[in-house]
Design a protein that fits this description.
Elements lengths: L1 E5 L2 E5 L3 H9 L6 E8 L19 H11 L9 H10 L6 E5 L2 H10 L6 E9 L3 E3 L3 H8 L5 H13 L7 H6 L1 H13 L9 H5 L2 E4 L5 H5 L2 E5 L4 H9 L2 E7 L4 H10 L4 H4 L3 H13 L6
Parallel strand pairs: 2-9, 6-7
Antiparallel strand pairs: 1-2, 3-5, 4-8, 5-9, 7-8
Helix pairs in contact: 4-12, 6-8
Amino acid sequence: MIEFNNKNMKRTFCNNFIEFYQAVKKCYEKDKILLFRGHCNLTYELTPSLFRNDNLRKESKYYHKIMIDYPEEFGKKDHLSNLVKLQHFGLPTRLLDFSKNMLVALYFACRDGHDVDGDVIVVKTSINKMKHHNSDTVLCLASLPLLNENDKNEILKFCKNTRDKTLDKKTYDTNISIHHLYHEIRSEYPTFDFEIVPQDLLTFQFVACNQDNKRIKAQDGCFAIFGLDKDLSKKELEKCVECHLIIPAKAKIDILKELDYLGINEKSIYPGLENSMLYLVSKKNNPNNIF
């Protein structure tokens, strides 16, 4: 296990499971929680898929198109649950997946890209910084995808100029874009108060979403939801990064085998009949097959 300090960011090379476990153990702190995210390529950025490849411009279009085409799947007025489901099916969203289970993140860092080094990003935050599914702040952020690009740009500009103020009833009555945001929030939560803190719309929040999805439950998943200011959200999130645990490409296969012994594999990560059958058949044909 080799450690490097670069620009105040600790990087530790972990060549096997034991080294990885020892590195994580050093990160624990009383009254703090650790969250983990695995990247199969250490060059990947800590950014939701929505903010890559010009996807942001199409956010509202994607969202409404899916809602219209699949009303049986998205009939419930629960903006965050809808976002989680869209994320589950691969649509670009402002959510960034994390896991409370270090082994899950290690699996994702090793699963692909066996010719490049992987990365497990360890994030440390206070327990009270983890918002619940029904948090007012989370509801505001989860309502943003329903707004068109012009509304989001107007609210972004407004919030940047009024960080020390509150978006209240007067703002609602005079700013059409803020009016549209309140409309979407109240479509889910009709008794929502008029007051919103501008800073809350700009930056990210950690959120422990409902465990009503088999995959989220299996992966012990939670999310960071980005606000209107991508750069600020990313900057604030990176402040929470405790360290990067680098997984050398040559170590990935052996670590995957060790994880398989611990019950962390394709079957457990992606629960369901199809994946279970594929896993069992592959193991029957080749007991050493980790996929």
